[in-house]
Fold this protein.
Amino acid sequence: MVVVELITGRTLDQGATVEEKLSDEYFNAVNYIELSEEDFKQLALKEGDRVKVVTDFGEVVVFAKKSELPKGIAFIPMGPYANAVIDPATDGTGMPQFKGIKARVERTEERVKTIKELLEAI
Amino acid sequence: MLIIKPKKEFEVCIEAELTPELAMKSVEEVRKFKVYYGNRVVELGELFEVVKEGEDKKLVLDGDFGRVKWIGTRMVDGEIVVKGNVGANCGAFMRGGRIVVEGNADDWLGIEMAGGEIIVKGNARNLVGCAYYGNAVGMTGGKIVIEGNAGNYIGEKMNGGEIVIKGNAGDFVGTEMRAGVIEIHGSCGFVGGDMRGGEIRIKGNFDLLPTFRKTEKGWVGDVNVKGEGVIKTF
Amino acid sequence: MQDIICTFCGSVCDDGEYDLEKRKVKKFCKLGSSKFAEKERIKAPMIDGKEVSYEEAIEKAVEILVNAKKPLLYGWASTANEAIRVGVILAEKLGGVYDQCASVCHAPGTLAMIEEGLPGATLGSVKNRADVVIFWGSNPMEAHPRHGTRYSISAKGLLVKDRKQRKIIVVDVRPTKTAKIADMFVQIKPGYDYAIISALRAIISGNADVVPNEVGGVPKEKLVELAEIMKKAKYGAIFYGLGVTQSRGRDRNIENAIKLVQLLNRTTRWVIWPMRGHYNVVGAGEVPAWEVGYQYAIDFSRGYARFSPAEFSAVEVLLRKDCDAALIVASDPVAHFPKMAVKHLKQIPVIQIDPFPNMTTLIAKVVIPSAVYGIEAEGTVYRMDCVPLRVKKILETNYWTDEKILEEILKRVEKLRG
Amino acid sequence: MLWIKNGIVVDPKNKINAEKMDIFVKNGKIVAESDVKKEDCKIIDASGKLVVAGGVDMHAHIAGSKINTGRTMRPEEMRVVRNIAGKFRATLGRVLLTAPAIGYEYAKMGYTTSFEAAQPPIGALHTHEELDSIPMIDKGALPVFGNWHLVFKCIEEKNLEKLKALVAWAIERTKGFGVKVVNPGGVEAWMYGGNVKSLDDQVPGFNVTPREIITWLIRANEELGLPHSVHLHCNNLGVPGNYQTTIESIKLANGFRNPKRQVLHVTHVQFNAYAGSSWRDAASGAAEIAKVVNSMDNVTIDMGAAIFGHATAMTGDAPFQFSLHKLIGARWSNKDTEVETGAGIVPIGYLPSNPVHSLQWAIGLELGLLVDSNKVVLTTDYPNGGPFTEYPYVMAMLMSKKMREGELKKVHQYVQKTTTLPSIDTEKTLYEVIHMTRSLPAKVLGLENKGHLGVGADADIAIYNLNPLETDFSNEFEKVYKSFKTAEYTIKGGEIITKNGELVKEVFGKTFWVDARKKVDLEVIMPDIKEYFNYYSVQLGNYGVEERWLKNPSRLEVV
């Protein structure tokens, strides 16, 4: 298990598929977490492995990807997977905290849910 | 004393500017008091049971008022006791009297409060004692005590009065504060951004901004506004 | 067809070429090309998944809306001003709540503007004059791919001729694609934007001695270097993004950055502007501002507009269960709201107006498909810098426009409400 | 059809001064008695009431990015509820109003026309969208020219034909009405953090001066024969000592002549009428300015009166707005706009206890009193000097020395020695004040069918519960003020839209725009425009506003 500061945000692929949310392309554009090389190594992951991301606000299973992030920072593209674990509190601003959430990431054998399954589980 | 009790669970939030003045009215009048149930204007009696016990200027809100907003707005004297949670904007623009919340308080507790006392036994959310949107001055007098934790943005633009938080507070305490005292018994995040005056006392940990000078009095700043506010630990 | 206007992101590029035969757009980026590509559509209006006529769907929508104690009317960032205006008036008539996508995007910038104003510029000013551009928590290479070539990074301007004459700085918590092409990258600790901006203000105003050796993961020398660059700029621009608005500090970060810009303007010229996301998220705020006084998080339950993001932003309304019906126009809150907010949305009747099926379609009771602005419908939109553009109709369609659907709803509501 | 019976008519354009007469309306126009069938007319009994043309506001900021930014940054301004949603729209606003509120409040006061005084060309469509959302009144907008690189280029080349073609092209593209000039050259200097300080300062990067910009634009405007003259917001606005710049600018009209109207309109002169060298020794320069204006027959001004209370400074004069922000420490919005123009917004307020604010208040009134009534229009430069809803205050003040004496007691006594207001005995007549609010602004704008009640005029009419024959304007100023605050009837295009301050019917007026393309050869300027569009952030083909996008456009063709 590693502890990370989770960031969520836009990506080019997420943007290009945002009007096709029920497509496989969108599913693939938003269902992963980017981890730093160190964290990736520490979890003994290889590309395509799955991890469970757990925060105070929920948990979600996503695919793991290696990226150039600094150690301790992880990134999930904005979308339903990210939103399963972000902090909904807006602190009176109307804006939930989409970035900078403490999360635990661990290797898992669990399946990545489809978008519909994710929605049904809410 | 007037006891008001919700009759049912509400479908949407209610706006009811309940003040101790109501305790001075007859039960019939109180039942006819207009409250906002979403976009419907309804009589208080439709949604709440009303019981009168004696003549003192006191309101007992018996039940969960967590979805009832604007309780105690502009009150000047008397007392409100909320037996459960209270909704947003409680004690807004309050000038005197006392509000005791036995549960938790929602956002915007004591907006621009000028006098009186608010005691929350549970937690309070964000924007306690702040200036309302676009206004220049927050709390100017009176006292707010939160026995649990408080959220973010406590005492922004505060220009008098006192806020005491027995637990932890969130981020951005006393931003642009000019006068008054904020006391935090637990820990909090950033403190005193662009503070001009007043005092913030903290018992636990906090995030110090890089714009305060260490002096004998404590941390003085914010230098970005040539401020003379003081942050100290106790 | 020439001068086609893109209805994807806030850059609203207006130099596209559309090939009517191949049904393809040229010159646009990956996002713009995807916008103009053919894709799956909602085929027909539906009630509970069953296909119906537009009129039947509208009748049902009206029934839901007029019976609601507090309907939430949300979305609006991907439609035209003409539709937004009808939507705002509808919210006023219904005594509902109007909120728009900015509330989970750039609305903290509006809160900051309430505190300090917004010293800004059109993108054309930046292109012509800016010799220093800072992307703070924004990543145009992914979110606004042509922003750099058209307006900011390598745009060919009148006074600043090209990329070589312009210094590009990225401030972010991670090395983004934009950071890779920048002249300077300042990597900061998540959540320390506010402290870093305070430190820059102190350095610039001659109080560098107070600033500790390291702030938010950045060594003081680097901050001093950044401050020097800012002071020496002839015309600087800060473009901030969701990295600032969606993380710790939110509006307070921006407020602080605006104060930094105010300070810099005492000795040189600087402007600051948000990198707005959707092509007309600016219109979704400007239209209600002139119609009812506020940009977002507007409650009409008392018969007039009130503004309070702490209470009337869509996420807060949903978290407090403070709405009993929802009309979602040109947006997908089910995909983009936190789980707890979606939970309430699943429990109330939802009406959706959108050209494309999305996650909100999956929970909507009434679904009304609409035409795509900029392709099948004409209308006015505001680019991220508030420059108005009239997007074009290129292709014929049988789909109704958002404006027409909303007008029909409004007409019936007015009839019922008198 | 309407028959307004037995009213006391004041109609300065037609030289009617408080005469009892009937007015007839058909198809939205004033017509002769013989043109109506009396039995089909709706009769309004105006016995003992004042009947005048609907008011014309020739300079206000009512639409576009400036006021809308003002609304956004000032939610505290939007918390005054004026109307609850019902048959009519909900309206809000203290001084800054929502678009529906602007229309409703003008109408309640008997005003039926208002012009947006500064339209950034690239933002023209936004201005028009907001104008289209303002109910009740007729509208127009003045695009700004004084800091546009293309204008500088034509002047540098001393090419009048190009400048004329540019003006005609730009007015058509913006669906604008005339030529507005804001701090010529100064806004361009602001792009480098500076300003211009005199008419002969060189504009950075260009071989032109403010003097040349103003003069050349007057020349182009007059050769084009536009309905309105150049509309000038002078250099050095808000700077003590600026009255001299204002006088110099006014004199630039010398040598130009137009039989129909002025050749230069200088706007919100109150803000440009300060003597002294700093705010510590500032004084009024109004008397000197009045002398010059009165001595010329080709210049008009408007007051830009300051009203005590809240206001919001919003102008295209971006460097001034920044100085104001520095001076008072208030919020500040700025908008540098392509290579065209700029703008700024700062919240302000006028306090009677403040010597400078009192001075500003006094200067506005001095201008209204000292300048010939045929040359000064009543404005507050809404919302810069305050709300337009307080025009009746200014009207009453101009007509009553007694009212002024009372008000002078309430303000900072600094004005006693720094202005001539306490010593002015003039009391403008009702006829003059009606002229200053109706027929004169209509004439200044070049709107022939507005501001009067002659046959053929638009049937925009206000009826006030005020009998001019029985009113002592010197002493009954409270009654005068109250009467003008709320018209008994406001009639727009022949329809009753308000009655005693209640809304009767929502109508949407016209937007006037001027088409002077036939007067020029656009091809002389197109190559330059095309070249300059390399430095725009939009395509030339996407620039501008088409007539069919507007709700109710009315084209005035110049031939």
Notes: Chain B has a mean pLDDT of 97. Chain B has one domain: 2-233. The radius of gyration of chain B is 19 Å. Residues 27-32 of chain B form the longest helix (6 residues).
